[in-house]
Structure formats: structure tokens, C-alpha cells
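[job 4417] fold queue: 2 targets
>>> target A
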Amino acid sequence: MIIALLVLLPETIAALRSGPLVLGLGSTHMVLLALTVVVSSLTVVPGRATPLQGGVHLVLFAAYLELAVNP
């Protein structure tokens, strides 16, 4: 993993210096992305997820799919 980070570091720095980062997501999808990152970091980092936490992930995924179909 450390080797992969060292290989990708120059490309990451060049990409950040080249201009603003545009993900192509609307504001609603950006909020869902941020919420997913927070929830994932809370459940994946400790190493175990409970069924309730898995349900939260499924609800977030269902909300993303619903908003992707009906913006």
C-alpha cells in the first residue's frame, strides 16, 4: 500500500495544482457522497459492522439510486 501511495503521489499533486476539482455531481449527490464517507469511516474503520450499520448503508444506497433515477 505504501508503494502504491508513493507511485500515485506525484500524479495527485499534479492533478491538484492543475485546477479546480470537478466531480460532475450535483449538490444532492455531493451531500450523499459526504454522508456515505462519514458513515463508512464510522463502520469500516473499527473492523466490524452490525446489522443496523449495514442497514444504514443499504438505505443510503437506496436513496442514491432513487435520486439518480428521479433527480
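>>> target B
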Amino acid sequence: MAVKEKISLPRADYPEQVGVSSKEILAFIKDAEESNIEVHSIMVLRHGKVAFETWRDPYGPEIPHTIYSISKSFTSVAAGFAIEEGYFELDTKVIDIFPEFRPEKEDPYLEEMTIRHLLTMTSGKDVSLLDDKSKNKWKEDFFKSKWYNEPGKEWKYISENTYMVCAAIKRITGMSVIDFLTPRLFDPLGYDRRPFWETDIDGVEAGGWGLYLTTEEIAKFIYCVHNGGRFNGKQVIPEHWVKEATKKQVESLRYHELDNRAGYGYFFWRNGIVPNSFRADGMFSQFGVCFDDYDAEFIITSCEITEQKTRDLIWRHFPAAFIDEKDDSDYNEIKDKLFFPALPELP
């Protein structure tokens, strides 16, 4: 097997070189500790360079981290490639891809549901969180689940919508999503290993969860998306797909937090508190945040169940940390303080 070329993101010599405040990063780290938020890693990018990065021991640069629902944003890009290459369309009916689940008595809602409805969480299917994922019935559970509304009428965050996008990609292309994405996304981004993604017994990726990546692998993906799909001087993701996937496609008004009510794209969230920003979002506060007005990205892996608590931490310091570029830096004076204390060893 050929050794894959690892492409690393370029690094700034110090944060201020690309317009990021070292003092504000230190304030973020102190705030996270005082707020009892267990951060595992952060990476700050501006103007295409890593301005700052740090990990909490025992986590490190080469250790893949579960990214939970950030996985959905990778599924979004996989769907974008599939549509671009003509495997299916946004308005392709899901039941036409899986005709074995068409009931004898016609279900008009089932005949309406499309790939677009899956991508926008408006399929109308209400799959139970209690369904047993250890059994090979993931697709069956989706089609047999009750309707909460007609497709396209109401947004509801159901992770199995994302799984069905992965199932559609495998059914139409004959490839797993990992295999489908490897030459199209992972190789151009310089991933030097095959990522692990949880699957069902048929090898279909969970889609909405289950992908493990290093912090820099997340960062390269988020940067590529925010850069119009370009990476390392090449168009990797179709530009029009990135634009459509990250803009508000539907209202997301089921939650009370402003950040969750600002609209939903194709498995990407718009942010409500910081204008002109969007994010890939995973449970326990895994985030890849893109700041349009600052040409900047912020990546965090962590273990904080209250996601808005972590988002509020981010907003207290970013985008305030984005400053004018300058040649002098506070970094050398405080660099020995820019780290998170190690996690306590287990007994």
C-alpha cells in the first residue's frame, strides 16, 4: 500500500502575525478552567494559517477524537459530491433509491420525501432514540418510524436522516462513504490515514455520528469549507455546494438557544449570537466555527454536555481575539501559560 502524503496546515510564527491576540487566547483558557469546561484541544486559524493550537494531556495532535455530529457535515459534503457527479439529485425521492421499503398501500408522505428533506432535517420521520442500533435494522427502523409531519413542513433534528444519506450514497455508488470520500476529500486534504467511522452491519456509515478525526483533520476540513471548497490551491469541494450547504435552508425554531434558532443548512448550523458565522456542531461541545467577517476558523474538541455553555465561552473571546496583524507579540511573554492542565489519572 502506498504511503499517503500528509499535508499540514501552514503555521504562523506567533498568533499576532496573522491577527490573533495571545492575551485573548490566555483569557479563553483561564475562562474555560474557571467555568469548569473540559476542553481537550483548540486550534485557531486566520488567513489560512494556524495561529495557535494546544491539547490537554493525555490528548495530543496525533490522537483521533470522536467528533459526534460534526460527522454530519462530512456527510453533507459526500452528498454534494454525489449530486455533482450525477448519482442522484436533491429532489430524488428516497423511496426510489430503496424501493423494497415501499408499502403495498401507498403512503403519500413516503412518495414525497427527497434527499433534500434528509439534508435539511425536514423528512418528517421521527425515529426513536431508543431503537436498538446493535441490530441490522437501521433502514427498516427509519422507514417504519412514525411521521411527525409531512416532508418539508417542519424541521426536527433526527440523526437518522444523515444515516439515510450515507445509505443512499452506498446504494447508488456501491461504495462506503469513507471509500467515496477518500479520493475526493481525504486525499486532497492530506489525511495520511484512513479515518474510522462507525457503520451498521452492512458497512453503511452512521452518518450523523461515529467519525473519529484529529484536531488538524477537523481544521483542514473546516478551513476548506470556509474557503469556498478550496485547499492547497485546488478546488476540492464544489464551490456552489459549500455555499448552499452553509447558508440557511430552513428555520430551526425548536430550540430556545439563539445559536440553534438561526437556521439550518445541509447539516451545517448558522450561529445566532455572532453574525455572519456558521458551524459544524457535535455533542459534548465539538465545534468547527467559521467567522466570515474575519477570515478565521476556531476548532474545539471537548467534553461539556451543555453545548451553549461552551459556545458562550467561545463568544466571550472570539471574535474579540481577532485583531490587526502586527510584528510585535505578547506571545513570548505568556506562551508558558497557554495550555490546559492535564486531566487527572484514573484510579
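[job 4417] complete. Note on B: The radius of gyration is 20 Å.
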